From TrEMBL, chain B:
CDD domains registered for this protein in UniProt: RHH_CopG_NikR-like (cd21631)
Name of the molecule in the record: Ribbon-helix-helix protein, CopG family
UniProt xrefs under Pfam families: RHH_1 (PF01402)
Family annotation (Gene3D superfamilies): Met repressor-like
Amino acid sequence: MTTTIPTPILRPIRFVTDVAAWQAFYADLGFISTGVEADGWVVLAADSGRLALHHAEPESPLVGKAKLAWEVPDLEAYRTAVAGTGTDIRRATFDRGDVLVADLPQGRVVIDRADGAGGTNPVRPEGLAVLPLVYTRSVIDGAEAATHLGLTRRITSDTNGWADLMGHGVLAFHRADSDAAEDRTVDDGEISVEISLETGDVEALQTRVDAAGHPVDLIDEAYARTLRITAPDGTRVWVNETQRDLYGFHVATGAAPPSR
Amino acid sequence: MPEKTQFNVYLPPELVRAVKHRCIDEGVSLSAFVERVLSDYLTEVEQR
């Protein structure tokens, strides 16, 4: 009997010195509270996917970095379903409680139990989705491994330089351009990501973000348009427009092509 | 990297589409492609 693996809620973790400033920033982009908030730890929800803000002291090497993580409603049901496919997944106990640990070619992923509400819609162009982006030399290997953890292949470039998968939120693998960017990990082997976003209506988001006073540029890329929004630390958050022109890309068998 | 500035122009949609497809074929960013094409053209004109 095949057990369907519960769909993960992608919830990357960003390490910041000023949690309140980042919380306000993401609220201006449309994120809402999940109700999960503790000292130095806040979980926010987009339409699809979540992200966590984790306080870090200014001298911490984690400041400015982010790592891949996700949540599932029921850890044991998820562990049983994943293990049933022959994929290695382990229980562990951290300071914050029981978690699961799984592996991708790029490093390990810690899976928490989902608390609070929000972020559990499917990926859809009318909403805002969280898009953790992994720079790697192992794009296809990473994407294939992620399918064994409940994520569904969506778009892949014909050159295999890009592959993304849907959960609640989008997980993307992008070919690293240099050795320095290859398979970076943070915090004891967990996978380093860039936290990007995706929406079908970048112009509406640009208007909203501009009205909130955040510098924002709308810039064409070959695959789609993007927003670059200046974040509290001066870096820029990328928002990809939902890709509609699939020239040079293909959609996984069985996956619905993106549409407005 | 040298400082970059945004450069907005109006072009026919079919040309934009063709340029973007060419970038994908060559595996380069739109900015890098346009920079190369414009620079090459200016160099060519100056050498005539």
